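Look over what follows to help learners.
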Amino acid sequence: MRLKSATANIIVSDVARTVDWYRDVLGFEFTVGVIAGTQDPVFEATGQELGFAMLKRDEVELMFQSLESLTEDLPGTTLGSGDGFTLYVDVDDVDALHAEVQSKVEMTVDLRDTFYGAREFHVRDCNGLLLGFARRPAQG
C-alpha cells in the first residue's frame, strides 16, 4: 500500500464565492460540488449555494467546504479544535492502511463507503488536526 496524493480541504464561510475567486483569479476549474444541505452532486458551478467544491488546476486539487457541511460529514468538528484545515490523502489501498493504523489512533470516522463513491476513514493527528484517508472513486 502506498500513499498517492494529499488534498487540502479548506473550511470557508462561502463555498460558491470561493469557487468564483479561485476560478476567476487563479484559473482553477470547478470539477465537482455538493449543493448545501444535500448529498446532490453538481458538475458545474451555476450560482447555487454549495456546501462543498473541488477545484483543479494542472496537478493541484483543492477542496473547499462549509463548516456546516463538514460537521454533517464529521460530527463534533469545530473551528476552535484546529478543524479549519483538514488533509485528505488519496491511498491506493485504504483498507490496508486502516488495518495498519486502527489500533494506533482514535477514529474520528471509521472506515466507510460514502455517497460520493469514496471509501475513507478519518483520524486526528497529535495536534488535533483532521486527516482523511481515502480510495477515491475512479474518475472517467
